[in-house]
Design a protein that fits this description.
The protein is an all-alpha fold. The chain is built from 4 helices and no strands. The longest helix is centred in the last third of the chain and has 17 residues.
């Protein structure tokens, strides 16, 4: 899974990855891509909804570029 297009996926307050961030990255200070790295490091543990949101963001980014 390519995490380059995930910036807004978990930055959105009520996004699909919100609970994943709370659960898996609660000790990570936001900024400088640290949350993105945490999610990437924990990709096997992400909820299905979060994984789907990331895939959608990647497809959207590819379509826009």
């Amino acid at each position: 899974m390519n995490f380059m297009a995930t910036g807004t996926v978990f930055a959105e307050g009520d996004g699909a990855c919100k609970e994943d961030v709370k659960k898996l990255c609660s000790d990570v200070e936001p900024g400088d891509g640290r949350i993105k790295k945490c999610l990437k490091d924990n990709r096997e543990n992400l909820s299905q909804a979060c994984k789907e949101k990331i895939v959608q963001a990647i497809k959207k980014r590819k379509g826009a570029g």
